[in-house]
Amino acid sequence: MDPKQIVADGYDRIAERYAEWAGGGEGDPRDRNLDLLLGRLPVGATVLDLGCGTGALTTRRLAARFAVTGVDISARSVELARHNVPVATFQHADMTALDLPLASVDGVAAFYSLTHVPRHQHGPLLRAVAGWLRPGGILVATMGAGDLAGEIEADWLGAPMFFSHFDAAENARLVAASGLRVRSARVETTDEVGAAVPFLWVVAERPRERTRNTT
Description:
Layout: H1 3-21, H2 29-40, E1 46-50, H3 59-63, E2 67-72, H4 75-84, E3 89-92, E4 105-110, H5 122-132, E5 133-144, E6 148-156, E7 159-165, H6 168-177, E8 181-192, E9 195-205
Parallel strand pairs: 1-2, 1-4, 2-3, 4-5
Antiparallel strand pairs: 5-9, 6-7, 8-9
């Protein structure tokens, strides 16, 4: 089966359950990294939320401060997101197929979504993100911390689910190779049903263009 179809169908089945399960708690890396993004950008900035899900976990907080567009491959998730966060804009789309204008957004969030994308597409997607960001724009993303070419978990919260990622060092290299400047890249663990699962949290910035000295 197409890995992306597995992800789309899976989240169509478990959208509500996932939002409740992943709601976070004390010490959740999602909350700390979201606070970082909220603190780095000015009110009214344009932000792209890749893998927005139902909007309840990340998009709602972003939309209280920014002009947000959420993108998700799950039609059910997008349907719920439009209801949960009516002030934001949502697209039902494959994030790797987005065609956005260059230098059109100030920030990109990708929380726990890139690991559902086949890893051979991570490099091209990161290069696209670097192009969408304005100079000084910021990416905050969750990436894999271990090497996994591609795996289908038969029952993940009640549905089959696909995962794929490189290890932490290769992921940091891919971000830097995209043209972004890596500000931080650290492995943090997320509690998943009593198990501590490591992820690489990356904060990266599109370099500002240097002003030429004409004197």
